[in-house]
Amino acid sequence: MESSTPVIVAIDGPSGTGKSSTSKAVAAQLGLSYLDTGAQYRAITWWMVTNGIDTADPSAIAAAAGKPEILSGTDPEKPAITVDGFDVAGPIREQDVTSKVSAVSAVPEVRTRITELQRSIAASAVTGIVVEGRDIGTTVLPDADLKIFLTASPEARAARRSGELKGADLHATREALVKRDAADSSRKTSPLAKADDAVEVDTTDLTLQQVIECVVTLVEEKRADR
Ligand code: DC
Fold this sequence. Notes:
Blueprint lengths: L6 E6 L6 H12 L2 E4 H14 L7 H7 L5 E3 L8 E3 L2 E2 L7 H11 L2 H16 L4 E6 L2 H5 L5 E6 L2 H11 L5 H17 L12 E4 L5 H18 L1
Bound molecules: 2'-deoxycytidine-5'-monophosphate.
């Protein structure tokens, strides 16, 4: 492979492992595009909620899965997401969407639709792309040049997440995270999982800067190898 060939990096793992911050920083440092696939699942969930679709009814979700038009920006310095032309970057982080996204993202028709979108975005990245999610290395981009699986203890993940949510209750945050991970890991279609050929990085005792440096080094080694 020539060194000018785009480099595809898949970063998977549960929430609170530093996936988004790491992926954005690595992409920015290396001049690569960036895709937050969780934001796409949140965007389709936001559309279902806004349009009165019963998110507890998989057949209703499946029937509507093709309707919203979801556009993702891929600049790591200013990630953007719109649904039918509306900027939903703020609303998709709200509690109502967060509590329903596991149910919506478990529906196979939703996954097929969003996976196609992700593959076409990755295929059009000129220098390469860092794609973060839950099933990128296993399902979306199984031929990625580098696969990273980030982990951290539930305590560390809850502490980081409640910090981001400006002092949310630690115990409640931990419970909600564990519940969402269990749902994401146990669903039938492309669950949260580590690919056999992924490099696992436990971030529990690492600073964000250390995780970023570790991943940048791994990408540079891959590029040097080819
Ligand atoms: O990374 P996040 O917390 O924004 O992701 C929101 C939800 O989207 C997560 O609970 C599971 C789902 N998701 C998924 O099923 N597959 C992905 N590749 C990314 C996210």
